[in-house]
Amino acid sequence: CYAVDFNGNKSAYKEFALAMDFNPTIDLARNKHCTAGAVQNDNTADRAVNGNANNFWTCFGQGSATDWWWCVDLGNAYDITQINIHFNDCWGTYGIYSSKDNAVWTPVVENEPSASNEAKSYSNLNFSGRYLKVVSAVSEIGIRAFEVFGTGVTQETTTPIVDIYEPTKVRKMIENGQVIIIKNGVRYNVAGQVVR
User: Bridge partners of 188?
Assistant: First the structure.
């Protein structure tokens, strides 16, 4: 089986994918869009997922009980298998919630005790979600790192199968994000950039 290259020419790629699958060892939350109900100074929500352990998000002393939350949008729905959280500050209980639509929330863990500078890992999880929210019972909460691991959601697909010798049709599918080309186990988008 052959695929087409980024110019529409038949190529020697041995693997061809019509849907994305994701590496379960990549942090799905890294550098994704984050929001928070409250922020202290410049300790913004994105700091919990930027990979820099020297900064963090916090709402310490800010807002009221309805504001003591932090949320990450993973960009797509995933089958979540593990969540790691490293607190900067946290002196009360908290919960982690999941949502596919940012409206209906399902608890992953609730009423968890925490302590300042504590790291917790929740493994062997088995749920699907796009949004993950941490809600605290007190304003004394700060997140230094929030990591999420899993794979692309398994779903029935109606992605059309096309003849790979129709380069125009395949190229259009690639441009619409329906196809990822795989060469030697590395995934590429239409621009030839590695897709993680």
Answer: 181, 194
- For the stretch 22-35, pLDDT in tens is 445 789 999 999 99
Buried-exposed string 90-108: b where 16+ CB fall within 10 A, e elsewhere? bbeebbbbbbeeeeebeeb
CA dist., res. 57 & res. 181, Å (int): 37
CB 69 within 8 A of CB 35: no
CB atoms within 10 A of CB 10: 12
> Could you give the dihedral angle defined by the CA atoms of residues 58, 62, 64 and 67, in that order, rounded to the nearest 10 degrees?
-40
Which residue in 20, 22, 39, 35 sits closest to 148, CA to CA?
22
Calculate mean pLDDT across residues 159-186.
Answer: 55
**Lookup result for tokens 């590429």:** 188
Instruction: Tell me the pLDDT tens digit for each residue of 60-114.
Output: 888 888 899 999 999 999 999 999 999 987 778 899 999 999 999 999 999 988 8
CB 82 within 8 A of CB 122: yes
Q: What is the DSSP string of 40-103?
A: -TT--GGGGSSS-TT--EE-TT-S-GGG-EEEEEEEEEEEEEEEEEEEEEE-SEEEEEEESSSS
